[in-house]
Amino acid sequence: MTGDLTIQHHHAGELPDGRAVDRWVFGTAGSVTAEVLSLGARLQSLHAPDRDGRRANVVLGGTSTGDLLGEAAYFGATVGRYGNRIAGGQLPLDGTVHRLAAQPNGHTLHGGPDGFATRVWNGTEVRDGDRVGVRLELHSPDGDQGFPGAVDVSVTYLLDRAGELTISYEGVTDAPTVVNLTNHAYFNLGGEGSGMVLDHLLQVAADQYLPVDRELIPFGPPEPVVDTPFDLTAPTGLGGRVSAAHPQIWLAGDGYDHNWVLRPGEGLRQAATLLHPGSGRRLDCLTTEPGLQVYTGNHFDGRLTGPGGSPYRRYAGIALETQHFPDSPHFPDYPSTVLRPGERYRSTTVYRLSVE
Protein backbone atom coordinates (compact mmCIF):
# COMPACT_ATOMS: atom_id res chain seq x y z
CA MET A 1 0.00 0.00 0.00
CA THR A 2 1.28 3.43 -0.88
CA GLY A 3 0.38 6.95 0.13
CA ASP A 4 1.19 9.38 2.89
CA LEU A 5 0.42 8.61 6.50
CA THR A 6 -1.61 11.46 7.95
CA ILE A 7 -3.26 12.30 11.25
CA GLN A 8 -5.97 14.83 12.04
CA HIS A 9 -7.18 15.97 15.45
CA HIS A 10 -10.73 17.26 15.96
CA HIS A 11 -13.12 18.21 18.72
CA ALA A 12 -15.74 15.43 18.73
CA GLY A 13 -18.28 16.95 21.11
CA GLU A 14 -19.09 17.17 24.80
CA LEU A 15 -20.57 14.81 27.34
CA PRO A 16 -23.62 15.79 29.41
CA ASP A 17 -21.32 16.77 32.28
CA GLY A 18 -19.36 19.13 30.02
CA ARG A 19 -16.27 16.99 29.45
CA ALA A 20 -14.83 17.53 25.96
CA VAL A 21 -14.20 14.52 23.73
CA ASP A 22 -11.41 14.54 21.13
CA ARG A 23 -11.11 12.55 17.91
CA TRP A 24 -7.99 11.48 16.01
CA VAL A 25 -8.24 10.14 12.45
CA PHE A 26 -5.07 8.61 11.03
CA GLY A 27 -3.75 6.28 8.37
CA THR A 28 -3.39 6.25 4.59
CA ALA A 29 -6.04 7.91 2.44
CA GLY A 30 -7.79 5.37 0.23
CA SER A 31 -6.43 2.49 2.30
CA VAL A 32 -6.69 1.65 6.01
CA THR A 33 -7.61 4.50 8.36
CA ALA A 34 -8.51 4.47 12.05
CA GLU A 35 -10.56 6.82 14.21
CA VAL A 36 -9.85 6.95 17.95
CA LEU A 37 -11.83 8.89 20.59
CA SER A 38 -10.54 10.14 23.94
CA LEU A 39 -13.74 8.82 25.56
CA GLY A 40 -12.73 5.35 26.66
CA ALA A 41 -9.54 5.52 24.56
CA ARG A 42 -11.77 3.90 21.99
CA LEU A 43 -11.37 2.64 18.44
CA GLN A 44 -14.47 4.25 16.94
CA SER A 45 -13.95 3.21 13.33
CA LEU A 46 -11.51 1.27 11.16
CA HIS A 47 -11.92 1.63 7.41
CA ALA A 48 -10.36 -0.99 5.13
CA PRO A 49 -10.64 -1.92 1.43
CA ASP A 50 -12.07 -5.20 0.17
CA ARG A 51 -10.55 -7.28 -2.64
CA ASP A 52 -11.96 -4.79 -5.18
CA GLY A 53 -10.63 -1.75 -3.34
CA ARG A 54 -13.99 -0.70 -1.88
CA ARG A 55 -13.54 0.70 1.61
CA ALA A 56 -15.85 0.07 4.56
CA ASN A 57 -15.80 0.58 8.30
CA VAL A 58 -15.24 -2.87 9.82
CA VAL A 59 -15.90 -2.10 13.51
CA LEU A 60 -19.23 -1.36 15.18
CA GLY A 61 -19.74 2.02 16.81
CA GLY A 62 -22.22 4.40 18.35
CA THR A 63 -23.66 7.44 16.62
CA SER A 64 -23.36 9.88 19.52
CA THR A 65 -21.45 10.40 22.77
CA GLY A 66 -24.71 9.46 24.49
CA ASP A 67 -24.56 6.01 22.86
CA LEU A 68 -20.99 5.64 24.09
CA LEU A 69 -22.15 6.10 27.69
CA GLY A 70 -25.09 3.76 27.18
CA GLU A 71 -25.73 0.82 24.85
CA ALA A 72 -22.38 1.23 23.06
CA ALA A 73 -20.31 1.90 26.18
CA TYR A 74 -17.80 -0.87 25.48
CA PHE A 75 -17.72 -0.63 21.68
CA GLY A 76 -14.04 -0.28 20.73
CA ALA A 77 -13.17 0.92 24.24
CA THR A 78 -10.11 0.25 26.34
CA VAL A 79 -11.71 -1.62 29.24
CA GLY A 80 -10.21 -1.86 32.71
CA ARG A 81 -8.87 -1.65 35.34
CA TYR A 82 -9.76 -5.33 34.91
CA GLY A 83 -11.18 -6.45 31.58
CA ASN A 84 -13.77 -9.24 31.78
CA ARG A 85 -15.31 -10.55 35.02
CA ILE A 86 -14.37 -10.75 38.70
CA ALA A 87 -16.86 -12.96 40.51
CA GLY A 88 -18.95 -11.49 43.30
CA GLY A 89 -17.22 -8.13 43.06
CA GLN A 90 -14.58 -9.44 45.46
CA LEU A 91 -10.84 -9.11 44.84
CA PRO A 92 -8.62 -11.26 47.08
CA LEU A 93 -5.07 -9.86 47.19
CA ASP A 94 -2.28 -10.47 49.70
CA GLY A 95 -4.66 -11.73 52.37
CA THR A 96 -7.20 -8.92 52.04
CA VAL A 97 -10.49 -9.08 50.16
CA HIS A 98 -11.32 -5.78 48.44
CA ARG A 99 -14.97 -5.08 47.69
CA LEU A 100 -15.29 -3.79 44.13
CA ALA A 101 -18.05 -1.82 42.46
CA ALA A 102 -20.27 -4.31 40.68
CA GLN A 103 -22.89 -4.46 37.98
CA PRO A 104 -26.51 -5.32 38.95
CA ASN A 105 -25.77 -9.06 38.73
CA GLY A 106 -23.27 -8.71 41.60
CA HIS A 107 -20.15 -9.32 39.53
CA THR A 108 -17.57 -6.75 38.42
CA LEU A 109 -17.37 -6.55 34.62
CA HIS A 110 -14.72 -4.55 32.73
CA GLY A 111 -13.58 -2.65 35.82
CA GLY A 112 -17.01 -1.82 37.21
CA PRO A 113 -19.96 0.39 36.19
CA ASP A 114 -17.67 3.44 35.93
CA GLY A 115 -14.63 1.72 34.48
CA PHE A 116 -12.03 3.03 32.06
CA ALA A 117 -14.49 2.93 29.12
CA THR A 118 -16.41 5.87 30.65
CA ARG A 119 -13.36 8.07 31.26
CA VAL A 120 -11.96 10.82 29.06
CA TRP A 121 -8.28 10.06 28.47
CA ASN A 122 -5.57 12.60 27.62
CA GLY A 123 -4.28 12.07 24.09
CA THR A 124 -1.14 13.05 22.22
CA GLU A 125 -0.34 12.56 18.52
CA VAL A 126 2.47 10.06 17.90
CA ARG A 127 4.71 9.44 14.90
CA ASP A 128 6.98 6.42 15.11
CA GLY A 129 8.96 5.78 11.94
CA ASP A 130 6.54 4.44 9.34
CA ARG A 131 3.60 4.49 11.78
CA VAL A 132 1.28 7.19 13.00
CA GLY A 133 -1.32 7.32 15.76
CA VAL A 134 -2.16 8.53 19.24
CA ARG A 135 -1.09 7.83 22.82
CA LEU A 136 -3.77 8.17 25.50
CA GLU A 137 -3.12 8.35 29.24
CA LEU A 138 -5.28 7.96 32.33
CA HIS A 139 -4.77 8.26 36.09
CA SER A 140 -6.85 5.88 38.19
CA PRO A 141 -6.73 6.83 41.89
CA ASP A 142 -6.48 4.47 44.83
CA GLY A 143 -9.93 3.02 45.55
CA ASP A 144 -11.21 3.65 42.01
CA GLN A 145 -14.21 1.30 41.67
CA GLY A 146 -12.86 -0.38 44.80
CA PHE A 147 -9.49 -1.38 43.35
CA PRO A 148 -6.47 -0.81 45.60
CA GLY A 149 -3.53 1.33 44.54
CA ALA A 150 -3.27 4.36 42.27
CA VAL A 151 -2.51 3.33 38.69
CA ASP A 152 -1.24 5.32 35.73
CA VAL A 153 -1.96 3.63 32.42
CA SER A 154 -1.50 4.41 28.76
CA VAL A 155 -2.66 2.91 25.48
CA THR A 156 -1.00 3.73 22.16
CA TYR A 157 -2.59 3.11 18.76
CA LEU A 158 -0.17 3.04 15.80
CA LEU A 159 -1.14 2.29 12.19
CA ASP A 160 1.25 1.65 9.30
CA ARG A 161 0.76 1.76 5.52
CA ALA A 162 0.30 -2.00 5.31
CA GLY A 163 -2.84 -1.88 7.43
CA GLU A 164 -1.33 -3.13 10.68
CA LEU A 165 -2.84 -1.54 13.79
CA THR A 166 -0.71 -2.00 16.90
CA ILE A 167 -2.24 -1.38 20.34
CA SER A 168 0.29 -1.13 23.18
CA TYR A 169 -0.64 -0.86 26.85
CA GLU A 170 1.53 0.17 29.82
CA GLY A 171 0.86 0.78 33.48
CA VAL A 172 2.46 1.39 36.87
CA THR A 173 1.06 1.37 40.40
CA ASP A 174 1.97 2.70 43.84
CA ALA A 175 0.48 -0.30 45.70
CA PRO A 176 -0.30 -3.93 44.85
CA THR A 177 -3.30 -4.22 42.55
CA VAL A 178 -4.52 -6.08 39.47
CA VAL A 179 -4.42 -4.81 35.89
CA ASN A 180 -5.92 -6.52 32.85
CA LEU A 181 -6.56 -4.21 29.91
CA THR A 182 -8.03 -5.06 26.53
CA ASN A 183 -9.75 -3.49 23.54
CA HIS A 184 -13.43 -4.26 23.08
CA ALA A 185 -13.91 -3.63 19.36
CA TYR A 186 -16.61 -5.61 17.56
CA PHE A 187 -15.57 -6.58 14.03
CA ASN A 188 -17.70 -7.20 10.98
CA LEU A 189 -15.43 -7.59 7.97
CA GLY A 190 -18.38 -7.31 5.61
CA GLY A 191 -18.78 -3.76 6.86
CA GLU A 192 -20.41 -2.20 9.93
CA GLY A 193 -24.17 -2.67 9.77
CA SER A 194 -24.00 -5.15 6.86
CA GLY A 195 -25.68 -7.97 8.77
CA MET A 196 -24.55 -10.95 10.80
CA VAL A 197 -21.00 -12.28 11.07
CA LEU A 198 -22.16 -15.89 10.78
CA ASP A 199 -20.65 -16.08 7.27
CA HIS A 200 -17.18 -15.30 8.69
CA LEU A 201 -14.52 -17.95 9.20
CA LEU A 202 -12.62 -17.92 12.50
CA GLN A 203 -9.44 -19.71 13.49
CA VAL A 204 -8.00 -19.52 17.03
CA ALA A 205 -4.53 -20.75 18.03
CA ALA A 206 -5.77 -22.57 21.11
CA ASP A 207 -6.20 -26.20 22.14
CA GLN A 208 -8.05 -25.37 25.37
CA TYR A 209 -10.80 -23.06 26.56
CA LEU A 210 -12.43 -22.13 29.88
CA PRO A 211 -15.97 -23.44 30.40
CA VAL A 212 -18.25 -21.08 32.32
CA ASP A 213 -21.20 -21.29 34.71
CA ARG A 214 -24.60 -19.64 34.26
CA GLU A 215 -23.08 -16.28 35.27
CA LEU A 216 -20.43 -16.69 32.52
CA ILE A 217 -17.70 -17.05 35.16
CA PRO A 218 -15.07 -19.76 34.60
CA PHE A 219 -15.54 -22.57 37.12
CA GLY A 220 -12.26 -24.47 36.91
CA PRO A 221 -9.26 -25.50 34.85
CA PRO A 222 -9.10 -25.30 31.05
CA GLU A 223 -10.64 -28.11 29.04
CA PRO A 224 -9.65 -29.43 25.58
CA VAL A 225 -11.48 -27.99 22.58
CA VAL A 226 -11.28 -31.25 20.63
CA ASP A 227 -14.68 -32.72 19.75
CA THR A 228 -16.48 -29.56 20.92
CA PRO A 229 -17.85 -26.46 19.13
CA PHE A 230 -14.85 -24.64 20.64
CA ASP A 231 -12.40 -26.37 18.31
CA LEU A 232 -11.35 -23.50 16.05
CA THR A 233 -7.88 -24.85 15.28
CA ALA A 234 -8.79 -24.67 11.57
CA PRO A 235 -10.82 -21.95 9.82
CA THR A 236 -14.42 -22.57 10.83
CA GLY A 237 -17.71 -20.98 9.85
CA LEU A 238 -19.33 -19.21 12.78
CA GLY A 239 -22.87 -20.01 11.68
CA GLY A 240 -22.56 -23.71 12.36
CA ARG A 241 -20.94 -23.18 15.74
CA VAL A 242 -23.32 -20.70 17.37
CA SER A 243 -26.21 -23.08 16.59
CA ALA A 244 -24.43 -26.13 17.99
CA ALA A 245 -26.28 -28.28 20.53
CA HIS A 246 -23.81 -27.82 23.37
CA PRO A 247 -24.52 -26.64 26.95
CA GLN A 248 -21.75 -24.04 26.87
CA ILE A 249 -23.16 -22.51 23.70
CA TRP A 250 -26.62 -22.32 25.29
CA LEU A 251 -25.28 -20.76 28.50
CA ALA A 252 -23.78 -17.87 26.52
CA GLY A 253 -27.06 -17.15 24.73
CA ASP A 254 -26.51 -19.30 21.62
CA GLY A 255 -22.98 -18.28 20.80
CA TYR A 256 -19.54 -17.65 22.21
CA ASP A 257 -18.65 -15.57 25.26
CA HIS A 258 -15.64 -17.60 26.36
CA ASN A 259 -11.91 -17.37 26.90
CA TRP A 260 -9.59 -19.49 24.77
CA VAL A 261 -6.23 -20.45 26.29
CA LEU A 262 -3.73 -19.46 23.62
CA ARG A 263 -0.79 -21.68 22.86
CA PRO A 264 2.20 -20.52 24.90
CA GLY A 265 5.07 -18.59 23.36
CA GLU A 266 7.34 -15.61 23.75
CA GLY A 267 6.48 -12.13 22.51
CA LEU A 268 3.89 -11.46 19.83
CA ARG A 269 2.30 -14.63 18.47
CA GLN A 270 -0.70 -15.54 16.39
CA ALA A 271 -3.95 -15.57 18.34
CA ALA A 272 -6.69 -15.64 15.70
CA THR A 273 -7.59 -15.12 12.07
CA LEU A 274 -10.99 -13.83 10.96
CA LEU A 275 -11.95 -14.03 7.27
CA HIS A 276 -14.96 -12.75 5.36
CA PRO A 277 -15.10 -14.74 2.10
CA GLY A 278 -17.57 -12.36 0.47
CA SER A 279 -15.31 -9.29 0.61
CA GLY A 280 -11.94 -11.03 0.92
CA ARG A 281 -11.12 -9.01 4.02
CA ARG A 282 -8.90 -10.82 6.49
CA LEU A 283 -8.00 -9.83 10.04
CA ASP A 284 -5.04 -11.44 11.79
CA CYS A 285 -4.78 -10.92 15.54
CA LEU A 286 -1.42 -11.26 17.27
CA THR A 287 -0.81 -10.68 20.96
CA THR A 288 1.50 -11.05 23.94
CA GLU A 289 -1.48 -12.05 26.10
CA PRO A 290 -2.24 -15.62 27.27
CA GLY A 291 -5.97 -15.56 26.48
CA LEU A 292 -8.53 -14.52 23.89
CA GLN A 293 -12.13 -13.80 24.81
CA VAL A 294 -14.41 -14.37 21.82
CA TYR A 295 -17.90 -12.85 22.00
CA THR A 296 -20.28 -13.18 19.07
CA GLY A 297 -22.71 -10.40 20.00
CA ASN A 298 -25.35 -12.89 21.16
CA HIS A 299 -27.35 -10.28 23.06
CA PHE A 300 -27.58 -7.46 20.53
CA ASP A 301 -31.30 -6.72 20.16
CA GLY A 302 -31.59 -3.92 17.60
CA ARG A 303 -31.97 -1.09 20.12
CA LEU A 304 -28.69 0.48 19.00
CA THR A 305 -28.28 1.87 15.50
CA GLY A 306 -24.79 2.15 14.05
CA PRO A 307 -23.19 5.03 12.13
CA GLY A 308 -24.36 3.52 8.83
CA GLY A 309 -28.01 3.69 9.92
CA SER A 310 -28.58 -0.04 10.46
CA PRO A 311 -29.69 -1.45 13.83
CA TYR A 312 -27.35 -3.93 15.47
CA ARG A 313 -29.14 -7.22 15.88
CA ARG A 314 -27.85 -10.55 17.16
CA TYR A 315 -24.43 -11.51 15.73
CA ALA A 316 -23.86 -8.04 14.19
CA GLY A 317 -20.19 -8.22 15.22
CA ILE A 318 -17.58 -10.36 16.91
CA ALA A 319 -15.19 -9.23 19.66
CA LEU A 320 -11.67 -10.69 19.80
CA GLU A 321 -10.46 -9.48 23.20
CA THR A 322 -6.82 -10.31 23.98
CA GLN A 323 -6.36 -10.49 27.74
CA HIS A 324 -5.52 -12.47 30.85
CA PHE A 325 -8.18 -14.91 31.96
CA PRO A 326 -11.55 -13.92 33.45
CA ASP A 327 -11.72 -14.04 37.26
CA SER A 328 -8.04 -14.97 37.58
CA PRO A 329 -7.76 -13.42 41.11
CA HIS A 330 -9.87 -16.37 42.32
CA PHE A 331 -7.78 -18.99 40.48
CA PRO A 332 -4.12 -19.18 41.58
CA ASP A 333 -3.38 -21.56 38.69
CA TYR A 334 -4.37 -18.96 36.09
CA PRO A 335 -1.71 -16.49 34.84
CA SER A 336 -1.41 -13.73 37.43
CA THR A 337 -2.74 -10.22 36.84
CA VAL A 338 -1.10 -8.76 39.97
CA LEU A 339 0.94 -5.57 39.46
CA ARG A 340 3.24 -4.35 42.22
CA PRO A 341 5.16 -1.11 42.80
CA GLY A 342 8.36 -1.05 40.77
CA GLU A 343 6.90 -3.29 38.07
CA ARG A 344 5.54 -2.15 34.71
CA TYR A 345 2.47 -3.65 33.09
CA ARG A 346 3.02 -4.17 29.36
CA SER A 347 0.78 -5.74 26.75
CA THR A 348 0.69 -5.54 22.96
CA THR A 349 -1.90 -6.62 20.44
CA VAL A 350 -1.79 -6.27 16.64
CA TYR A 351 -4.79 -6.31 14.33
CA ARG A 352 -3.46 -6.82 10.78
CA LEU A 353 -5.86 -6.14 7.91
CA SER A 354 -5.34 -7.62 4.44
CA VAL A 355 -7.33 -9.12 1.55
CA GLU A 356 -7.33 -12.46 -0.19
UniProtKB/TrEMBL annotation:
Functional pathway: Carbohydrate metabolism; hexose metabolism
Keyword line: Carbohydrate metabolism, Isomerase
GO biological process: galactose catabolic process via UDP-galactose, Leloir pathway; glucose metabolic process
Transmembrane segments: none
Reaction it catalyzes: alpha-D-glucose = beta-D-glucose
GO molecular function: aldose 1-epimerase activity; carbohydrate binding
EC main group: isomerase
EC numbers, comma separated: 5.1.3.3
Binding site for beta-D-galactose: N84, R85, H184, A185, Y186, D257
Gene Ontology, cellular component aspect: cytoplasm
Entry protein name: Aldose 1-epimerase
Species of origin: Kitasatospora sp. CMC57
